[in-house]
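ARCHIVE CARD
SHELF: 3
SLOT: left
DATA:
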Amino acid sequence: REAMKSYPFSKYNEEYQMIILRARFEYAERSTLGTQPERYRMVLDEYFNYKNTFPNGKYMPEADRYYKKAQSKIDVLPS
């Protein structure tokens, strides 16, 4: 995230955002059951951030998979 702030017009911003999305997902996966719902919602936030910034991005299929997995986890986890 710091790289995106320091270099807002970098040609690597799409990659940076995808790395953040992957990291959020992995963080949610490794979290305790009590914190997982909140962390999966953070994955959804990052997904929409990526989708709004790069609607036709080269990582969109991967981002969609993370979105679907996170949404399905939120649906079954206790809030």
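SLOT: right
DATA:
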Amino acid sequence: MKSDTQNSFLFYFLLVLAMVFWASSWISAKVFSEYINAYELMVYRYFLTTISFVPILLYLKKSFVISKDTLLLALLSTLFMILYSKFFFDGTMHGTAGLGAAFVTTLNPIITFILSLVFFKKELRKKDIFALLLGAVGIFTILNVWSFEFEDIFVIANLFFILAAFSWALLTLNNSRVKTVDPLVLTFYIYLFTTLFGYFITPFESGNIFEFDFVFWFNLILISIGSTTFATSFYFIAISKIGASKASSFIFLVPFNAIFLSYLFLDEPIYYTTIIGTILSIIAVSMLNNAKNPFKRNG
């Protein structure tokens, strides 16, 4: 019994840690803006991720074989991944990491739901309309539009964040069309293709990265192996153990972790509007996903 309790504690600790690593990618992206460009980060990050993914797939005894149809879908997802990586980097470079994380991670599932209405003819219920309106209020509150002039809302950073969320939503919907391949294997090929295509389109203009300091290398390892390989792998393992609905609820920790980490390491201020807007958006997302209110305690 004690061993089961310890194993359960370790499992949930690692799942929470995965969410912290996911959040840390936003802080690392901000740091990288002082060293390299968006495409260089994409190549270096996913090169290390691809290499570190191989032993995990071998350990889990996953097959690397994919069909031609899956290959084509993986290539399309690669395009969306490249776009997301570009907008993700540029958004954090021009804006704040904490706000960007809160904005994109809550806006993405809302955009995904709206796109599913358009492309998959998903039924729109009254509850969904209310959730979408609540999500819109949450997003606007994160952006603090109530105190801005109209032109201030569409600053360059916010536009990049919107494009990042839209790109990731397209990636999510495209991946949902793949039914015959393990999600980890599909993810591996997307990282591999992103590295290969990224290499040929990247202007390597930042010099020899082996001459960069400890801060650069720490963040590169963190964003490649911690935020991507470990966090992604363990999240899919969690889905297999506790189910997609319960595992996905932990993603709600990501924006709050990012806000705190950006305050801790980047000295970015924490605005009450960001916190309130994030909470409203998370409630909206949980309603759209037919999940229980993540802020309602049981019993």
